[in-house]
Write a structure and sequence with these properties.
Blueprint: H1 4-13, H2 20-45, H3 54-70, H4 79-97, H5 102-122, H6 124-127, H7 139-143, H8 145-167, H9 170-180, H10 182-187, H11 192-218, H12 228-241, H13 248-264, H14 270-284
Length: about 300
C-alpha cells in the first residue's frame, strides 16, 4: 500500500492547482470509483454478477434527496440514513437473489432494480417522477468544488480501506471459500446463504454512500440513478480496472470518467470513439489497468 501514498498526496494537492471543471470531473470519478468498488465485492468476492446495483446507488441518492427537501435535514447528516436504507433494500433484494446462482442471480437483481426504477419514475407525488428532484440544497461545503472533492476522496479512501481490511479478514476468506467451492465450505460449517447475503448487504450499503455523493455532485436526484445503465457503469469500471485487484475498480472508474470527458469535449461521435478505446483496453489488457502495475494483488 505504500506505493499509493504518493498518489494520495498528489490527489490531496490537485484542487489547489486545477480549475473548477477538472476538479468536478475527478470528483465524479471518485463517486463512480466507490460505486464500482462496492459492486466488485459481489462480483469478485462472491463470484456473482449483479446487474441491479443501481438500486442501492439510487435508493441512497433518493434517501438523501427526500430527507433534505421534504424533512429539512442538513445534507451531511443524511449519510447514515442513505447507508441504512440502501442496506435494507440490499437485504430484501439479496434475500431472494442470493438463493439463485449465475444467470438467474443476474436477471433477478436486474428485475428488482428495474422495478424500483419504474416506481420512482412514476411516483410524481413523492419522488417527482421522471422530473426527478432538482435544486437540492447541499450546504456551502458540498457546493464548493474543492469541498465536495475532498468529501468524495475521504469517503472513497474510507471505503477502500474498509474493503482492504474486509478482504484480509476471516469474513473475506469465508466469502471466497463459498465462491470457490460451496459444497466444501458448507461441509466445514459455513452457511453459503448467510455469507452471500451479508456480502450483498455490505456491498449495497457502500453503493448507497456513492449515491449520497452523487446528489451533491448534481444537486439533484433522477430516476436514471436506478436504471440498469448505471449498474453497467460499475461493471465496465471493474472490468476495465481489473476486478482481481483491490484498487482495480477505482482505477477503472477514474479512467472511464476521465476518458469520457476528454473524448466528449472533442467529438460529437464520442460514444463510438469511447467504445473503441474501451474495446482496445479490454482486449489487450485482459487483467485490467491494475495489471499494468506488474503484480497481482494479494487476494484469494
Amino acid at each position: 500500500m505504500r506505493v499509493w501514498l504518493p498518489a494520495l498526496l498528489i490527489l490531496l494537492l490537485l484542487p489547489l492547482f486545477l480549475p473548477r471543471y477538472p476538479v468536478e470531473v475527478l470528483t465524479q470519478g471518485f463517486i463512480l470509483a466507490l460505486f464500482a468498488s462496492a459492486f466488485n465485492l459481489v462480483f469478485f468476492q462472491l463470484g456473482l454478477l449483479s446487474f441491479g446495483h443501481a438500486a442501492f446507488f439510487g435508493t441512497g441518492a433518493y434517501t438523501t434527496a427526500l430527507l433534505v427537501t421534504k424533512a429539512g435535514w442538513p445534507y451531511l447528516l443524511t449519510l447514515p440514513a442513505a447507508v441504512l436504507v440502501a442496506a435494507l433494500f440490499a437485504l430484501v433484494i439479496g434475500f431472494f437473489s442470493v438463493r439463485t446462482s449465475r444467470i438467474y442471480f443476474t436477471m433477478l437483481t436486474l428485475a428488482f432494480a428495474q422495478l424500483l426504477w419504474a416506481i420512482v419514475h412514476k411516483w410524481y407525488a413523492f419522488t417527482g417522477g421522471d422530473n426527478g428532484i432538482p435544486g437540492i440544497p447541499v450546504g456551502s461545503f458540498a457546493t464548493s468544488a474543492a469541498g465536495l472533492y475532498y468529501l468524495a476522496l475521504a469517503l472513497l479512501a474510507a471505503g477502500l480501506y474498509f474493503l482492504y481490511r474486509l478482504d484480509r479478514s476471516p469474513l473475506g476468506y469465508a466469502l471466497r471459500a463459498v465462491r470457490d467451492n460451496e459444497a466444501r465450505a458448507e461441509a466445514i460449517g459455513l452457511s453459503p446463504f448467510a455469507l452471500r447475503l451479508l456480502g450483498f448487504v455490505i456491498s449495497g450499503a457502500l453503493a448507497g454512500v456513492a449515491g449520497f455523493l452523487q446528489v451533491a455532485w448534481q444537486r439533484s436526484a433522477f430516476p436514471d440513478f436506478l436504471y440498469w445503465t448505471k449498474s453497467a457503469e460499475a461493471i465496465i469500471a471493474a472490468i476495465l480496472g481489473g476486478s482481481e485487484h483491490l484498487l482495480g475498480p477505482a482505477l477503472g472508474a477514474l479512467a472511464f470518467v476521465e476518458l469520457g470527458a476528454f473524448v466528449q469535449a472533442r467529438t460529437e461521435y464520442w460514444p463510438l470513439v469511447l467504445g473503441l478505446v474501451l474495446l482496445f483496453l479490454v482486449l489487450f489488457f485482459p487483467r485490467g489497468l491494475a495489471g499494468l502495475l506488474g503484480r497481482r494483488d494479494a487476494r484469494g
